Amino acid sequence: MNKYDIKLIVIILFVVVFILFLTRKNNNYANVYYNNELVLKIDLNIDKEYSVEGYNGIVKIKVKDNKLKVIEETSKFHICSKMDYTNNGVIVCLPNKITINFSNNELDTIAG
Predict the structure, then answer these.
(1) Is residue 2, in this structure, part of any structural domain at all?
(2) Could you give the angle at the alpha carbon of 60 between the alpha carbons of 26 and 30, nearest 5°?
(3) CB-hemisphere CA count at 13 Å for 13?
(4) E strand or H helix at 58, and its extent?
(5) pTM of the entire predicted model
(6) Could you tell me if 55 and 94 are in contact, meaning their C-beta atoms sit under 8 angstroms apart?
(7) 72: domain range?
(8) Is 32 within 8 Å of 38 (Cβ atoms)?
(9) pLDDT tens-digit profile of 43-102?
(10) What are the angstrom distances between the C-alpha of 111 and each of 17, 36, 42, 78, 90?
(11) What is the CATH number for 79?
């Protein structure tokens, strides 16, 4: 290998890492639905707390380190708020009719 081969490999690696970084950053958001209607789009790159009006009251959502968690809700068993931080899958708070899905998991329908 000569120095031009090494430069070419470094450039290719840089381009691949850059493309992967851009792709991941663009898909880093979550959609919050109430009664099958989009009510909030959350950027997971920004640590922040959000409040959404649910069927039984306010549902509080916290974003930290590119992950999301329901921190407070009004329901009988508080199942949503017992879940840990996540950035994939679907979170369903059925008593409040709130559904949260992440950009890589678009839903066709939401059961409620």
Answers:
(1) no
(2) 15
(3) 6
(4) strand 58-64
(5) 0.68
(6) no
(7) 29-102
(8) yes
(9) 998 999 999 999 999 999 999 999 999 999 988 888 888 889 998 888 989 889 999 998
(10) 38, 8, 21, 19, 12
(11) 2.60.320.10
